[in-house]
Amino acid sequence: MLESFFEPASIAVVGASRTPGKVGHDVVKNLVEEGFEGEVFPVNPKADEVLGLECYGAVTDIEDEVELAVIVIPAQFVPGVLDECAQKGIGAVIIISAGFKESGEEGAELERKLAKKCAEHGIRCIGPNCLGVMSPHLKMNASFGPAMPQPGHIAFFSQSGALGTAVLDVAVGEAIGMSRFISYGNKADVDETDLIEALGEDERTGVILGYVESVDDGQRFMDVARRVTHVKPVIMLKSGRTSAGARAASSHTGSLAGSDSAYEAAFAQCGVIRAETVGEFFDYARAFAGQKPPIGNRIAVVTNAGGPGIIATDAAGSSGLQMAELSEETMRTLNESLPPQASVQNPVDVLGDAKADRYQAALDAIAEDENVDMLLALLTPQTSTEVVETARAIGRIADKTEKPVLATFMGRASVSGGWKVLQQKSVPDFHYPDSAVMALGAMCRYGDWLQSELHEPPTYDFDDSAIEETIEEAGRGGRDTLGERQARGIARACGIALPRSEFAADEDAAAEAANDIGYPLVLKLSSDDILHKSDAGGVKLDLESEEEVRRAFREIMESARQYDPDAAVEGVLVQENAPAGREVIIGLNRDPQFGPVIMFGLGGIYVEVLKDVVFRVAPLTEREAWKMIEEIRAARILKGFRGQPRADLEALADCLLRVSQLGVYYPQISECDLNPLFVYPEGKGVMAVDVRFGLDSSS
Length: 699
Fold this sequence. Notes:
CATH architecture of the largest domain: 3-Layer(aba) Sandwich
Structural class: alpha/beta
Distance between the termini: 34 Å
Number of domains: 4
CATH superfamily of the largest domain: NAD(P)-binding Rossmann-like Domain
Shape: flat
CATH topology of the largest domain: Rossmann fold
Mean pLDDT: 92
Radius of gyration: 31 Å
Number of helices: 24
Strand content: 15-25%
Largest sheet: 7 strands, mixed
Strand order of the largest sheet: 9-8-11-10-12-13-14
């Protein structure tokens, strides 16, 4: 629990300064001038007083109890002060001081020493290299931030102090209330997961916002976030979306799983709402702080201008919302209340000369409609527009209905009076219709999450001894990629269907195996050094006779030698000609933070071109496996399209779950590709035509 950071009865500022402009001065000044309700103890051995407060030479000189220490001194002296804090019995410290791991290896070593001391003394630490902490309701500004927002229900934490100051400026400028502000810097101790957990239990916080650059323990983050998001919304802004920082990988899955894929999947799986931009970050915060999430995705729009209504309608489609079909009773009421020229179809256009009473009548009728889950009121300033009265009308509707009500008063000076009224009524207002609709889409997704149940992943009986022996054999050989025979052995041990096949080291063995399996069949190069067999001319299809098999064997050997003269070539795999099905790919890649990440999408040679893929962090539940199938753009093809039969989606989901379990149970497996995986018509199953596994020798 981190209450001492948010609700301390007393604070010592170590490094308090009498010199205006110094951080140690600004921290004391912020505490004093904001009117902090607890005790403040400046600590500076070279001063008698700071801003009228008695100054102490060390925290151990303070006779009263100290609950929180804010440290603003040169980095090299911080470890010694931590010893003094421990001696004084201080259990929480905010280290604003810079000069730690952000400054190089010497600073990183100092930070490791700091973290070790905190652990030894049982001290919880926010920072170092941070802005500090604010609790507006307590009038506590234990930071060097220039201004503190008004009290509210939004908590915000950030790794970046610079972004934190920008957020504070916006919050103050737009009168956004906050419960907590935490800049946690280098997170030597307290990290984003600790903060989400603490803020989830904080009665003053209704919405949690966080900016992160990295998550160190992905599985713990997911466990905590999954629990907290069923109580209150968590909205995250995560930087580093590009794949530039991703670990290079040779598999399809690895090349497609950029540095951001695991975060995107993890957030979705634990109910975290992700903001794509800083603008969305604030938009979502306002929406969630002011209104409850909807119970459905049907939106109704009331507008006094056609253009904004069309913009809102377009945005609804891309945000996962449906334009509500108003009931006949609602449209009859609207026809009775509105001028004949008004449109009573959704979006409802009350016309440019609409006054507040016309908005009131339209919103009253629509709010009662059972086909409507959420309302959006759009206003553009016209000569007859009653801005303030219309805002009051919208506020009255929001007070009466349980459905979320949002507003967009477009413009600036002429609508500012309406903004103030909407804010007083806790009706979120947005500058543009599409921003409001996107916020409602995020609220809808969160509403779906709240209604979902937490399920445990299923378990399968694998041939664990066969898998372990294969991995050990590969490890003894020093290989980081399994040969095809070994890869097929692991797949078979997991219960994944494969075409019948036999290995052949020479031409005669290939002919014998072909006669045993039967025609038509396939010959595939067997070489650990050549990954993409087709590129090397290493695949021959639809072979109908022994003569064709012998010729294909010779051609494959010659092509492989020309493609890579140094490659070790073991022979060929003689494989049953699997009947064609709809091609998909299932893959696994091991993320440094979140562990095994499962990929699913359109397969075959087009996977890297079309990139119609989705990701989830293992272990998968059945619900998550089905959602993966639903989310790819090609899902309609699998469900049956233009006369094609429905694919065996049950078998496909089962295969996803088996790969998920394999990734969780065997950390030595770093990569996996089933590509192509043929999916047959309903009841006919799936078959992995090509299988590849990579190993991590360090696991």
